[in-house]
Design goal:
heterodimer, A: about 300 residues, mainly alpha, N-terminal domain of TfIIb, Cyclin A, domain 1, 3-stranded antiparallel β-sheet, 13 helices, B: about 180 residues, alpha+beta, TATA-Binding Protein, about 25% helix
Chain lengths: ~300, ~180
């Protein structure tokens, strides 16, 4: 949730409410044009890299257009003919040229994708975008997932596996790489690929691509689950604390991270008297109530927490 | 460290094609449903093992608790088939395909730190998918599953001594890294 707010752009000055906001690229600042308050400084320029350190790079950089992205099969470098029948001045194209434009558009579309490999890549990346949108994943994770998928293609790992399955596990891996792990069930629900297949493909890909991913820790799930349960920040902090202690006591070994996170949230919610039922927590975390009961008994016993219910 | 062999899988060949229909008529406890599975399933009560017989004459023995037991069971069953009147080979070549063994380190393991410190080449630990840690030993080619309770399941070995070597290697590696 926190990430999403930061991604959104500031459109209003928090001081005077003016919508006249100036972006100063020289200084990397976001300034209100009316009252002069500096809303944000040390901004990162997300634009393309224009610096060149030798002449070859200089030539390569001398281009126009949007920055290249891995999420498009042609890295966003090819031309598209717009669907509107308007020329570059915004005037509509005379009807005697309409048919010509239609043909041009058709052939442009056909030529863009040159062979089967590229067609598959285009399909896979659009599928990746679809699933990522369904999960509400940000840009950087999509790029990472596209990178992993392209690596898998280059190493010929797709053969014998479904494109959808590899796409889903690329996303799963990307989420973990960016430290915002989704559960296999979440990915599976968004992608129409079974949890089992995603897991299997994921394990295969980590082995073949040498993705060095640490096992997910329960802490990574706490804030997401808690905010879905509409719990306060105090409860989240409490949940983190419980898991930290559990980690030190080494009782997380061999336990599913989602179950641990769910139990910690459950205990924390009771301690801060924002009680959620086991059922509610279980639904959000995608584990069973029995798991929560077992884990929370273990946790309460080991950490010496007394819970009156 | 006490190693207990849990299962031995062996394969052999009778040398001649088998008439499964005929065998299933004479042998009790034989289960033969070609629509479900093309082989004949023959479950022995003593020793408790199961055999799969195929029409090509190949057979597979599972559930034996030792290599000798697997050899004996194959011989017993081939003798029974011979009694029915099918001329099978007297001295079949029996090959051990897989041995599964368990052991207990009698010590709780922290799988998380094992996964991190042993590097991710030979170790695979996905608590979301499976509670155990998968440890692939390069040579002998054996896979061990390590659990938080300290119990280990070792599988994929063709010989008993492979399991000894592999488990010893794992234990050495773990104590070198100061994990047990």
């Amino acid at each position: 949730m926190v990430d999403k707010v930061q991604v959104e752009e500031v459109t209003k000055c928090p001081e005077c409410g003016s919508e006249h906001i100036i972006r100063d690229y020289e200084r990397g600042e976001l300034v209100c044009g009316d009252c002069g308050v500096v809303i944000n400084d040390l901004q990162i320029d997300m634009g393309p890299e224009w610096r060149a350190f030798d002449s070859a790079q200089g030539e390569a950089r001398a281009r126009t257009g949007s920055p290249i992205t891995l999420t498009r099969h042609d890295k966003g470098l090819s031309t598209e003919i717009g669907w509107k029948n308007k020329d570059s001045y915004g005037k509509s194209i005379p009807s005697r040229n309409r048919a010509q434009m239609y043909r041009l558009r058709k052939w442009q579309r056909r030529i863009r994708v040159s062979n089967a490999t590229e067609r598959n890549l285009a399909f896979a990346l659009s599928e990746l975008d679809r699933v990522a949108s369904g999960l509400g994943l940000p840009r950087n994770i999509r790029e990472t997932a596209a990178m992993i998928y392209r690596n898998a293609v280059n190493k010929n790992l797709i053969r014998g596996r479904s494109i959808e399955g590899v796409v889903a596990s690329s996303l799963y891996a990307a989420c973990r790489q960016c430290n915002v792990p989704r559960t296999l069930d979440e990915i599976s629900a968004a992608s129409r690929v079974s949890r089992k297949e995603i897991g299997r493909t994921y394990r295969f890909m980590t082995r073949e691509l040498n993705l060095k991913l640490m096992p997910t820790s329960p802490q990574d799930y706490v804030s997401r689950f808690a905010s879905e349960l509409k719990l306060s920040g105090e409860t989240i902090t409490k949940g983190y604390e419980i898991l930290k202690q559990a980690d030190q006591l080494e009782i997380t070994s061999g336990r599913g991270p989602t179950g641990m996170a769910a139990a910690a949230i459950y205990i924390a919610s009771i301690m801060t008297s924002e009680r959620r039922t086991q059922r509610e927590v279980a639904d959000v975390a995608g584990v069973t109530e029995v798991t929560i009961r077992n884990r929370y008994k273990e946790l309460a016993e080991q950490l010496g927490i007394d819970l009156e219910i | 460290m006490e190693i207990k062999v849990e299962n031995v899988v062996a394969s052999a060949s009778a040398g001649v094609p088998l008439d499964l229909q005929k065998i299933s008529m004479t042998l009790e406890d034989a289960e033969y449903v070609p629509e479900k599975f093309p082989g004949l399933i023959y479950r022995l009560k003593e020793p408790k093992t199961a055999l799969l017989l195929f029409s090509s004459g190949k057979l597979v023995c599972t559930g034996a608790k030792s290599v000798e037991m697997a050899h004996n069971v194959v011989k017993i069953v081939l003798a029974k088939i011979k009694d029915i009147g099918i001329n099978v080979m007297d001295d079949p070549e029996i090959k051990i395909q897989n041995i599964v063994a368990t052991t207990d380190l009698k010590k709780e393991l922290n799988l998380n730190s094992i996964a991190i410190s042993l590097g991710l080449e030979k170790v695979e630990y996905e608590p979301e998918q499976f509670p155990g840690l998968v440890y692939r030993v390069e040579y002998p080619r054996v896979v061990a599953l390590l659990f938080g309770s300290g119990k280990i399941v070792c599988t994929g070995a063709r010989e008993i001594k492979d399991i000894d070597i592999a488990l010893q290697e794992i234990v050495n590696e773990l104590s070198d890294a100061d994990l047990i």
